Amino acid sequence: MSESVLDVNHLFWQVDNKTILADIHFSLPKGQMLGLIGPNGAGKSSLLRCLYRYIVPTSGDIEIFSKPISEYSSKLLAQNIAVVQQDTPHYFDMTTEQLVAMGLTPHKGLFDSNTAQDRERVVSALTKVGLQQKAQQQYELLSGGEKQRALIARAIVQQPHILILDEPTNHLDIRYQIQILELVKSLGISVIASIHDLNLASAMCDKLLLLDQGRLIAKGTPTEVLTERQISEVFGVCCDINLHPQHGKPLISYFYGYQPSPKGCPDHD
Ligand SMILES: Nc1ncnc2c1ncn2[C@@H]1O[C@H](COP(=O)(O)OP(=O)(O)OP(=O)(O)O)[C@@H](O)[C@H]1O
């Protein structure tokens, strides 16, 4: 079995007497891409926020390389984890290249300047996300999808062991949805990403976690998790699942005008 880079056990988060996350437990094996799926409000962002220490959970354990995240200094945590958040933040007065170069910070001392190798790393990351022509453009003037790609380039420059992506494809056109996730996969980094598009999650992820109302409903391979029954129960839509003609993992076709009844979805054969 491959080494685990991240272990989450018995994780609970309550706020205002409401349980947002309940007894979440999973591991992220080295080099794998783990997809976090579930309906709006299921707790996907909250779970990811716990992993990068933006939220302190009510109880439970989160360990990176078998060490509790509470024991990591901010700098050491940033050397291990890079995060691309759901809403692209504002960075005024910064070129795209300067934004991407921020990814070097966790590896630098206070007075270190950037080396030729650092600059090469920034150019390489910009090229990988197709933004080499936009290097000198103000970051704020990029389109939503270009901003998202710039933030992914910054995460690449950061050279983390674990990449946390909160809806990394929500601003991207279909070409970049596929290309960016394939790029991220090719880096050999361990990735946990929340993804709304179940077909994209099926194609790209090694394993999936299905969340609903803060609870872990299923975890396993796309074939194990993406079943017609589970999709109808959790998302409230009816669908038909076949094997994708290219990669052989589940390919979901949604039905329109059907809500699951107490007996489930109608038989569409
Ligand atoms: N700081 C907070 N205080 C109170 N409630 C919160 C807080 N943060 C999140 N929640 C609630 O927790 C639930 C889960 O939210 P979260 O953003 O984690 O869901 P999500 O699965 O990422 O949703 P989406 O797919 O819509 O992005 C929601 O009901 C949300 O309102």
UniProtKB/TrEMBL annotation:
<keyword id="KW-0813">Transport</keyword>
<dbReference type="GO" id="GO:0005524">
    <property type="term" value="F:ATP binding"/>
</dbReference>
<protein>
    <submittedName>
        <fullName>ABC transporter related</fullName>
    </submittedName>
</protein>
<feature type="domain" description="ABC transporter">
    <location>
        <begin position="6"/>
        <end position="238"/>
    </location>
</feature>
<keyword id="KW-0547">Nucleotide-binding</keyword>
<dbReference type="InterPro" id="IPR027417">
    <property type="entry name" value="P-loop_NTPase"/>
</dbReference>
<keyword id="KW-0067">ATP-binding</keyword>
<dbReference type="InterPro" id="IPR003439">
    <property type="entry name" value="ABC_transporter-like_ATP-bd"/>
</dbReference>
<dbReference type="GO" id="GO:0016887">
    <property type="term" value="F:ATP hydrolysis activity"/>
</dbReference>
<dbReference type="InterPro" id="IPR003593">
    <property type="entry name" value="AAA+_ATPase"/>
</dbReference>
<dbReference type="InterPro" id="IPR017871">
    <property type="entry name" value="ABC_transporter-like_CS"/>
</dbReference>
<comment type="similarity">
    <text>Belongs to the ABC transporter superfamily.</text>
</comment>
<dbReference type="Pfam" id="PF00005">
    <property type="entry name" value="ABC_tran"/>
</dbReference>
